Sequence to fold (365 residues):
Amino acid sequence: MGYKEKFEDKLFDFCRWTHKVSGMKKRINDFKKKPFSNALTKEQEKEVLSFYKPYAKPSLVFHRYFTGVSGTFYPNYIPQDLYVGYIDPYFNDIIAAKYYDNKTNYDSLFHGIPQPKTLLKRVNGIWTDGDNRPVFGENCQQPDDVRLSVNTGCFVKEAQKTAGGSGVTYIPQGEFSFKKVLDIANKYDTDIIVQEELVQHEAIARLHKDSLNTLRIYSVLEKDGNATIYSAVVRMGAGNAKLDNYSAGGLTCGIQPNGRLRKYGYNKKFEKMECHPTSKVVFSEYEIPNYQGAVDLIKKAHPMVAHFRSIAWDIAIGQDGTPVLIEANLCRGGIDSLQLNNGPLYGKDTIKILDEVFGHKKANQ
Fold:
């Protein structure tokens, strides 16, 4: 191994380590506090450790959580510590993600992929409209309000770091003004994007009419350039919530490959339910409209960002049934709800994935 290869290997290991320790100790401690500390038998613990022995020793807290909440044990659940510490940094360029994973770049990154209409952006402190034209006049004091007329509600979002719905503010229809946007944006020192509220398909709205209900779909870009879809859930708001996030009080339910929902959904309180608590829609009787279209969108979009081979996508279904890209989580996309609802993230391909990830590591030692 030459000097360059050794340096790249050390850099990879350093990035993997920093990626892993960032928040992971707290996450493991948080999981230890969940009411499922004794969910695994001694035999099941041995089975998990035996399964992962060729790769790396995992924390058992994640297997306890998935098993305790779902009631189903699999040795090949992917633990978060191994996902964040090894799998994610192997598949994805973590350093590049800091710059790519920015919603103000989506119009160029995902050219031709349907997205919500962008009204405004603040990039590096500079405000432009959705067509990247400066909003202010020559004196940089008066915004061109003609281009900013809005007939729907809109969302003001941090362009990065909006996990769990943080950094997202809703402005109701009829209340939009540039001053209101500035008041919200000035709370943050990050790039900002302002987008029109998307009108979702009536069938998706049946799940929960007050929130934009989205599909979280996880894909891996194979070495031949084709994307494989491994797991999917629908994320729904509850009560009067505008956000669909699991962490913001919503719930999730697994999506089968044919677009039909699984029997049970789950909320943050670890409650298993057969129907939506607000809309009363029975999950097992429901089918996502144009789910195949969402899959096709991801298979088209994923090769556009080939530096990131594993992505957790957030997709909405528009009023006319068109799938619309809301967000592409280019690294550290949440996988907890995917495994809780559908079982092991990679299913029958788990050993194939682990062999690739850890084979790469061993090959460079």
Observations:
- The first strand starts at residue 118 and ends at 123.
- The domain at 1-103+199-365 is CATH 3.30.470.20 (D-amino Acid Aminotransferase; Chain A, domain 1).
- Residues 55 and 358 are 6 Å apart (CA to CA).
